[in-house]
């Protein structure tokens, strides 16, 4: 049996592995100022394949090491541990390779740089005069400021219009890969917004082609699922969905499993339920730490040893059978590395995935994990201004707050436990108070760390996070009767960019075709049955609330009176359409209302 993974052990001088004395960002900046040197910064992630490659080739090349040690201050930053630095300096992917001046200003930026190119790069900037370095910094700043001005221009208030939704549908059709599914080109990522948009377009425009594209997309994304141990790889390197980067990120497992549960709800295709469970199974089996009650962040793309020496590339391991994988692990003494770091944002996403699994799989175990995980996040991560990034970084980021707001509202929907609603309200108030930028009119990170308007595949950009927030504010308004949240969401929607943005279109849907809200008022003994039926209708766009008939305050806020039996009010945030007693009729009623709403909004279609 030929094992290509031995190649690295044969051609790399392992002694070079420790010859670059990498410093933290803060240490490197301090030393650069003291020694008046340029900084070479490497932004990486433990799960990243090309980060393993650059470590084992470029940064173990003797000449590269000599040049770095002679002319530069080497800085290495873990993108997951330090999202502040990653958002500010990332060049569009990992690894990101940057030359900085002694003050931390960008002189040059790229992604993976091969050894020979790195030598030329290091020599070029090492020989550049201080005046030329300063000029280069100014050029980079000019382009950054130009992008920022364009960004600000896109944030002018706009009218929410169905014309924009049709524009995005045309955009997707134009870019759609009719042969292989997903958007055209390579690499191909499982962009969750695409199938969600197509599902909504199918519902409200009765467009069978949108349905066809949505289903084709869901099947295309399923090619990323590891058929041996489950879990979804991060992306395909080609347009055919056949060659993969094999890292499995916790956030992807959470997001994609929820996407497939929703696909199953709408289309009633059991394949989607199977895909959701294959993905979730991996997260629970490989990434869940029962001792702490948290999920680890990832499984790496390759097999590396404790010195980060690449032993087996993902393409030589993950294509194998279970037995062959076990033989490889036994031979080299390692398996794909589990990144045992815990980030609260990604754990919040897992709460939502487990909440869905509780309903769709009737898994009380998953509900127990979800509730325990939520309790841990509240007890260990909830501080004055929301949820911190990690135990090691006591900083606040908008995405963490929004993901946990989603998690709380999902738990409230499936349990009817008012505790989660109260916590959601408290977190929403923190977001509204602390994360709103008066200058931009949208919500941003607590600190000015540089807006993430770049295309970084493992981070939601600022517009995606704001779009998600809009939906949660709508739900919160519907569940509390507080008009303030609805108005905040509407105001924010008007500020989203009018360029071809699926995130903007998803937000527009909410205000043009308002999602159904199912208020279940009644007896505790009926709670589980009614919630289960209601949540399964289509949870992405049909929201479920159980209110105990004895909760007089909440009933008053919502405008209902208690009855001696459990009843259902089928509404949206503006009006109620029908009062029901039969929960089994709910699905049919919801989609009939959606059809009528679509015909009313589109009289000429």
UniProtKB/TrEMBL annotation:
GO terms for biological process: carbohydrate metabolic process. Pfam families: Glyco_hydro_47, Thioredox_DsbH. It comes from the Bacteria. Residues 19-120 form the Spermatogenesis-associated protein 20-like TRX domain. This is Spermatogenesis-associated protein 20-like TRX domain-containing protein. The keyword Glycosyltransferase does not apply. One of its GO terms (cellular component) is membrane. Keywords: Membrane, Transmembrane, Transmembrane helix. GO terms for molecular function: calcium ion binding; mannosyl-oligosaccharide 1,2-alpha-mannosidase activity. InterPro entries: 6-hairpin_glycosidase_sf, 6hp_glycosidase-like_sf, Glyco_hydro_47, Ssp411, Ssp411-like_TRX, Thioredoxin-like_sf. The chain crosses the membrane at residues 505-523.
